[in-house]
Amino acid sequence: MPMKPLKNGATIVVATACGFAALLLLVASRAEAASQEEICRNSVQGHVAWNQKGNTTWGAANIAKLCQGAQNSQARINCFSSEVQRGAVWDDAIATCKAREQQAGANSSGSNAEAAAKDAETSNTDVADQADVFTESYICKGGKTFQVRFDNSWTYSIAVLSLKDDPEIPLIQAPSGSGVIYSNGDYTLHTKADIAVLMRNDKVWDCKAK
Fold first, then answer.
1. CATH superfamily assigned to domain 126-209
2. What is the pTM of this model?
């Protein structure tokens, strides 16, 4: 005699599938967070200054503290550099940036209606947003070349310097009397129109946009 199927069999299957999907999303989310933390840790040593004197040598424990829980490695580093340049002690700067990320996360999950409205922005707005992020190529006296990705979509402007031997060096905008200056305490980039001056320690490169 064939067995009768459970009346709630379909419900059990659906519930199991939903539970499995939720588990996959959780695993993927944790993997992404771990990936961002790793990117952050690999980007700090020798590139990001932890004080206003420009010291870029970090202890492993302090790098781990800076990058712990980072959802966006570049945003965490840029926030930290900005706070240090404003005079914050390094551990206070880390705490400030983590608090900002938590607040931003709470705000972003507050309203599905707001998220839907953002997805429905006009094409004109999209074009304006794209103009906030652009890449410029430079060539210097002596033949040195590099690229810079400028991002003005944050509350503070950032620039990601790409060199042949180091493809991602985050810099943050600093006060300037003329032109625009970006720095991380190790590298400094001063731009004005199509002219750029790249500095590191006692080395200076005079460059021009291609």
1. C-type lysozyme inhibitor (2.40.128.200)
2. 0.43
